[in-house]
């Protein structure tokens, strides 16, 4: 019997993937869990395993193709023995395939709403992959998740809602998304800070030779995320510097012990531990702003994202429960995540759930920078190269090693005094290495 192999659920917020490599061909005999495709989704690359055993009779996926969840990627002729699915009554649509290993499982159906109040309008039904829904006016077009009130607002502003990029769950379009799109495309209206109106580039070839290349998926995702954050998050950056002279002695002393455990005692690992403590002491920095409902979402978990520079661009894997791990454990985990990021082996869930981000450029150089907050987080800590400077100690100037820190935060939630206290807490913790414990 011929079985369709479908692209399974990838993660809660991911609905498509690009084919990096096809690992099977027609005529191959495959087994369950054998890799079929190497896929890239947002900032992760991973393999899709087969859910069937048999002979490949057709391969529909091609390198460079963008696939949607539920799309047929290959067909397999299975053995003559009837499987449970073959014995089951035929349904109108194929059953959903199991999720990829390590991916976030599909969201279960929501519980019935009570009269006390739904907090948001339910998502409208979405057409299955390959199908379309009738647009409000005109020919059939792909379905767009948006509430009736948002669609009405789009009509009133003269905005084609099919062209609006949704920033909500599953790409849901909010009223703010429609307003922002209107600002970008309506002539004579100012664009949001940091964004560029939708306008064609001039013909640069008039002035000399040019070449073009498509933006990589990582760069496209980064560009969209940064533009959205810059346009919607009013950001302030606070600067300070920590005296890490004694901390550097501490780091050197215990470096071999951490290496023996499989990690590397870097300043990033130490900062992850210190920052996790600061987030517990200042929970506002571990929160998110729900602008639509006018609420603050406080998170009772501390998941620290660590920016990693790779040849494909900036990737941000997440260290979960950083506040519950000692520096040795954090060092081992961060080293492993960084290696997987550089070798294109991060899974989608490795990039999700961060509540705060660290971006350390000290290994490259610079005296400071203003990092952009990763929405929906409300703060990010930038780290630059440490430098020996004279400091007044005991009636004389002595050489001390200082680490420049840059804290960017969402001013809708965090005031300047809050930012200064948070950053000073981090500096003081780093200036007293005795407060840090390798085993606690």
Description of the molecule:
- With 440 residues, this protein is an alpha+beta fold.
- It folds into 3 domains: 2-83, RNA polymerase II/Efflux pump adaptor protein, barrel-sandwich hybrid domain (OB fold (Dihydrolipoamide Acetyltransferase, E2P), Beta Barrel); 137-197, Dihydrolipoamide Transferase (Irregular), CATH 4.10.320; 235-435, 2-Layer Sandwich (Chloramphenicol Acetyltransferase), CATH 3.30.559.10.
- The chain has helices at residues 84-87, 148-157, 175-185, 217-232, 245-260, 267-281, 327-342, 416-430; strands spanning 2-6, 16-22, 29-30, 35-41, 44-49, 54-59, 66-68, 72-77, 133-134, 140-141, 235-243, 287-290, 295-298, 304-306, 308-310, 313-315, 318-319, 356-360, 379-383, 387-393, 396-410.
- The strands form 6 sheets. Strands 11, 14, 17, 18, 19, 20 and 21 form a 7-stranded mixed beta sheet that branches. Strands 1-8-6-3 form a 4-stranded antiparallel beta sheet, with no helix packed on it. The protein has a 4-stranded antiparallel beta sheet with strand order 5-4-2-7, with no helix packed on it.
- The radius of gyration is 25 Å and the shape is globular.
- The model is unreliable at 81-142 and 187-197 (pLDDT under 50).
């Amino acid at each position: 019997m011929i079985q369709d192999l479908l692209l399974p659920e990838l993660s809660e917020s991911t609905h498509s993937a690009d084919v990096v490599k096809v690992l099977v061909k027609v005529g191959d005999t495959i087994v369950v869990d054998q890799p079929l495709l190497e896929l890239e989704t947002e900032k992760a690359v991973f393999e899709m395993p087969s859910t069937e055993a048999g002979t490949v009779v057709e391969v529909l996926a091609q390198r460079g193709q963008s696939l949607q969840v539920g799309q047929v990627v290959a067909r397999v002729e299975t053995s003559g023995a009837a499987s449970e699915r073959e014995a089951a009554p035929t349904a109108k649509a194929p059953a959903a395939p199991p999720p990829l290993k390590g991916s976030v499982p599909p969201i279960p159906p929501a519980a019935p709403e009570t009269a006390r109040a739904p907090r948001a309008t339910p998502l409208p039904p979405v057409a299955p992959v390959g199908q379309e829904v009738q647009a409000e006016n005109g020919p059939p077009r792909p379905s767009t998740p948006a509430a009736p009130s948002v669609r009405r607002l789009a009509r009133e502003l003269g905005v084609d809602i099919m062209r609006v990029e949704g920033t909500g769950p599953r790409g849901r379009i909010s009223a703010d998304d429609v307003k922002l799109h209107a600002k970008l495309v309506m002539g004579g209206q100012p664009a949001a800070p940091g964004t560029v109106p939708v306008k064609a580039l001039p013909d640069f070839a008039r002035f000399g030779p040019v070449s073009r290349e498509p933006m990589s998926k990582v760069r496209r995702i980064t560009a969209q995320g940064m533009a959205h954050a810059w346009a919607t998050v009013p950001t302030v950056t606070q600067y300070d510097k920590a005296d890490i002279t004694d901390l550097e002695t501490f780091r050197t002393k215990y470096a071999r012990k951490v290496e023996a455990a499989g990690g590397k005692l870097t300043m990033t690992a130490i900062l992850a531990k210190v920052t996790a403590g600061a987030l517990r002491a200042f929970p506002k920095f571990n929160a998110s702003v729900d602008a639509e409902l006018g609420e603050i979402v406080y998170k009772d978990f501390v998941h620290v994202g660590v920016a990693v520079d790779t040849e494909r661009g900036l990737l941000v894997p997440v260290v979960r429960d950083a506040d519950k791990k000692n520096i040795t454990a954090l060092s081992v985990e961060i080293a492993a995540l960084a290696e997987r990021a550089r070798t294109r082996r991060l899974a989608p869930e490795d990039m999700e759930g961060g509540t705060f981000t660290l971006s350390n450029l000290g290994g490259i150089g610079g005296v400071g920078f203003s990092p952009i907050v990763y929405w929906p987080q409300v703060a990010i800590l930038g780290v630059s190269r440490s430098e020996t400077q004279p400091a007044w100690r005991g009636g004389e100037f002595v050489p001390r090693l200082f680490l420049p820190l840059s804290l960017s935060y969402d001013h809708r939630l965090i005031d300047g005094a809050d930012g200064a206290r948070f950053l000073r807490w981090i500096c003081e913790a780093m200036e007293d290495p005795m407060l840090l414990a390798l085993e606690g």
